[in-house]
Specification:
single chain, alpha/beta, eight-stranded mixed sheet, seven-stranded mixed sheet, about 15% helix, globular
Length: about 375
């Protein structure tokens, strides 16, 4: 690749991935109900929630008691929420069936169990229920379920496996839900066509940890990410901006046992490396064609920046044709001890200069030491 190519103001990148069949969008949106157990599948349900929120809107996804107003009778609130939804996703992990309460009793045998109330209401009102089996979980045997829940064993199921299969599985689930609930009427045709997705996994010698409140899920030691900018519409899109923000706060240093995992990098069309600091971040782009990286990087820093407009260089833009996508790989690596909230957002335009922003839920990165 000619090193000067990295400085060309506008460029159509030649490495794209063809998408599947075009999506058909309806004008009516009904809510999606996510049913799950906190101690069984909270992490994977959070990922499912994030993906469904980007497709349908967070306000159209009902997720357990966190969505119930304070002081409300949760039994009636759950039943009412289920009756108003267009479909339910029942997330089932390995401990879903035999989960027990503080007294050692199986939760499903309690008529006031949240999950039981949700499923009974959906089955009673003939709401479509999609069992989403986590990892290698199998559908529970009907003989092990309360009588009013046995009908779930006859519902067509889907699997939600960990990476690298998660993207395929969540897309299959999303398309199935669209046939039941439609999509948000607030989205313009351009918003419906621009899809911005980020998948994360720990870096070598790092871990994904749940620290509980108030920090939640963090990537201790940093994370790798794969960002996909996809065009599911009928015409070309110009991705004209991609912004990154970072906020640092102190946190007690985490100490982990050293993991013996080696990461072998894969050369991809675009690579992005980010080093997080208390003051913000520093990083650079590497652009490539085929198997050859550019010799010219695009540096950036600060705590908030448009990555497509580096200081002293012309603005970078991607043209994505209908049915195609662009992939960006990179890493987020903390330099100072503490916790980092990181967020990406992207902006696309079409020939009519309409705009569509897709924003990722903040990712938390923590500095980690090893012993």
């Amino acid at each position: 690749m000619d090193p000067a190519a990295a400085s060309i103001p506008y460029r159509t990148f030649g490495i794209s991935t063809k998408m599947g069949p075009r999506l058909e969008w309806s004008d009516v949106m009904k809510p999606v109900f996510l049913s799950y157990r906190h101690n069984d599948s909270a992490d994977i349900t959070a990922r499912i929630f994030d993906h469904l929120s980007r497709r349908f809107g967070a306000s159209n996804i009902f997720r357990d008691v966190d969505s119930i107003p304070l002081g409300a009778d949760f039994r009636e609130a759950l039943k009412n929420a289920v009756q108003s939804c267009g479909a339910m996703v029942a997330v089932i992990g390995n401990t879903w069936l035999d989960s027990k309460d503080a007294g050692g009793n199986r939760r499903l045998d309690d008529i006031n169990d949240w999950v039981r109330i949700e499923l009974e209401a959906a089955l009673e009102h003939d709401i479509p229920v999609i069992p989403a089996l986590v990892g290698d979980t199998t559908l529970p045997d009907a003989t092990k379920l309360p009588e009013r829940l046995t009908a779930i064993t006859f519902r067509q199921l889907t699997h939600v496996r960990p990476d690298p299969d998660f993207s395929t599985d969540i897309e299959r689930l999303t398309r199935a839900l669209e046939s039941y609930v439609g999509t948000s009427p607030l989205e313009s045709p351009l918003q419906k066509s621009f899809r911005f997705k980020i998948e994360l996994e720990p870096v070598s010698q790092g871990r994904r940890l749940d620290l509980g409140k108030p920090h939640g899920i963090v990537y201790a030691g940093g994370c790798k990410f794969r960002m996909t900018l996809a065009n599911t519409g009928m015409g070309p899109l110009i991705v004209s901006s991609m912004k990154l923000t970072s906020r640092w706060e102190p946190i007690e240093a985490l100490t982990l046992e050293r993991m013996k995992i080696l990461y072998k990098g894969i050369l991809l069309p675009h690579q992005l490396f980010i080093h997080l600091t208390k003051q913000g971040f520093q990083g650079w782009w590497l652009l490539s064609y085929g198997e050859r990286l550019s010799d010219v990087s695009r540096p950036f820093d600060q705590s908030a920046v448009d990555l497509f407009h580096s200081e002293g260089q012309p603005r970078l833009m991607f043209r994505i044709n209908a049915g195609e996508s662009e992939v960006i790989d990179g890493t987020l690596q903390p330099q100072d001890e503490g916790l980092y909230d990181v967020q990406f957002s992207a902006l696309a335009t079409n020939a009519q200069s309409e705009k569509s922003a897709k924003t990722m839920k903040p990712t938390r990165i923590a500095k980690v030491s090893f012993r």
